Amino acid sequence: MRAAVPLEVAQAEGLKAALKQRFGRDIELHSEIDTRLIGGAVIDAGDVVIDGSLRTKLARLGAALAN
User: Fold this and answer.
1) Calpha distance 42→45 (Å, rounded)
2) Across-strand partners of 50?
3) CB under 8 Å to 29, separation ≥6 — which residues?
4) How do strand 2-3 and strand 32-33 relate by DSSP bridges?
5) Burial class (CB in 10 A: 0-12, 13-18, 19+), 56
6) Burial 25-35 (b: 16+ CB within 10 A, else e)
7) How many of the other CB atoms lie within 10 Å of CB of 23?
8) Residue 39 Cα distances to 25, 42, 65, angstroms
9) What pLDDT is attached to residue 46?
10) N or C: which end of the chain has fewer CB within 10 A?
11) How do the pLDDT tens digits run along the chain, 67 residues long?
């Protein structure tokens, strides 16, 4: 997982619980800081990528406004 800022312990535990429920197995969370995301996080779980970064949301907004 890449996040714009370090996660607090409670945030990391909540994220692990949500991912465990989604994928149906125990989750080992490895995180790194990526300030290019501006805010939010990107989760890479094998074949699944969950992009909740502010950078991506702004890019989608820009694309929608351009159309």
Assistant:
1) 10
2) 43
3) 1, 12, 15, 16, 19
4) parallel
5) middle
6) eebeeeeeebe
7) 12
8) 27, 10, 21
9) 86
10) C
11) 999 999 999 999 999 999 999 999 999 999 999 999 999 999 998 899 999 999 999 999 999 999 8
